[in-house]
Specification:
The mean pLDDT is 89. The strands form four sheets. The chain has a five-stranded antiparallel beta sheet with strand order 12-1-2-13-14. It has one domain: 4-Layer Sandwich (Glutamine Phosphoribosylpyrophosphate, subunit 1, domain 1). It is of the alpha+beta class and 246 residues long. It has six helices and 14 strands.
Length: 246
């Protein structure tokens, strides 16, 4: 997940591969969801898990629940906090149902189980917050939600984050290797803007990742400003907007 942000605009670009608590993998998933013209949600990490014989928790459905409960005027950090609490409870229920099979899957992912990204409009600009679902790997299984409000800086220069990974994209954003420095100079040479750089980095992440890794498929990208949401590119199977809050 690549995020480019200023106080005026936030751009998210994501691949299409989701790996759930179960050993399933699909490359047609919609990692980015837009809610009305006021909020964007995206996910890095585990998206769902069984909490009963025919019941699952789902990160995107949980974001939709938060949107409906809090409405379009809430702060990004409020969305993130509410989502984190729901996700933590879903993970606890998944552990009660799945037991060791869930822990085996989580141990391969490190301390961050999932991260939700929330970008929202506010008067005169936008705001950004992350919610991390954390587990230290020690019994008892008790995932903790941590909200991280992101301090945004005024443009025109935008800040970049590679959320939820330490792959090639993260190296290109912050690394000092010759390849990373060369790549950033290439952005300047090509005069890539805030909407183009995240897409380029997401494509690079897929191109350099192992075939059975956590990233793959095509790229979705979206921008949000105080005036609303604009899709830069979107798969046909992904809706332009989730249902409005009542």
């Amino acid at each position: 997940m690549i995020v480019a942000h200023t106080t005026e605009k936030i751009v998210l670009a994501a691949d299409s591969r989701l790996v759930g608590v179960l050993p399933d993998q699909r490359d047609t998933n919609c990692k980015i969801s837009a809610f009305g013209e006021r909020m964007i949600f995206s996910l890095s990490g585990m998206n769902s898990g069984l909490i009963g014989p025919s019941r699952r928790f789902n990160a995107t459905e949980n974001a939709n629940q938060v949107w409906r409960e809090l409405g379009p005027a809430a702060a990004a950090a409020d969305y993130a906090g509410a989502w984190g609490r729901i996700m933590a409870e879903g993970l606890r229920q998944a552990f009660e149902f799945q037991g060791k099979s869930l822990l085996d899957a989580l141990e391969q992912r490190g301390p961050v189980i999932s991260m939700g990204i929330f970008a929202a409009t506010k008067e005169g600009g936008v705001e950004l917050a992350y919610a991390e679902l954390l587990w230290d790997g020690k019994p008892p299984f008790n995932p903790v939600a941590k909200v991280i409000p992101i301090e945004l800086k005024r443009g025109p220069v935008f800040q970049l984050s590679a959320v939820g990974g330490n792959g090639p994209a993260a190296e290109m954003v912050v690394g000092q290797s010759p390849d990373a420095i060369k790549e950033r100079k290439e952005w300047d040479r090509l005069r890539l803007n805030q909407e183009q750089v995240p897409v380029r980095l997401a494509e690079m992440e897929i191109r350099l990742a192992p075939p059975n890794g956590d990233v793959g498929g095509s790229i979705d990208a979206v921008a949000i400003t105080s005036e609303g949401i604009t899709w830069i590119q979107r798969k046909a199977n992904c809706p332009a907007s989730a249902p409005e809050a009542p």
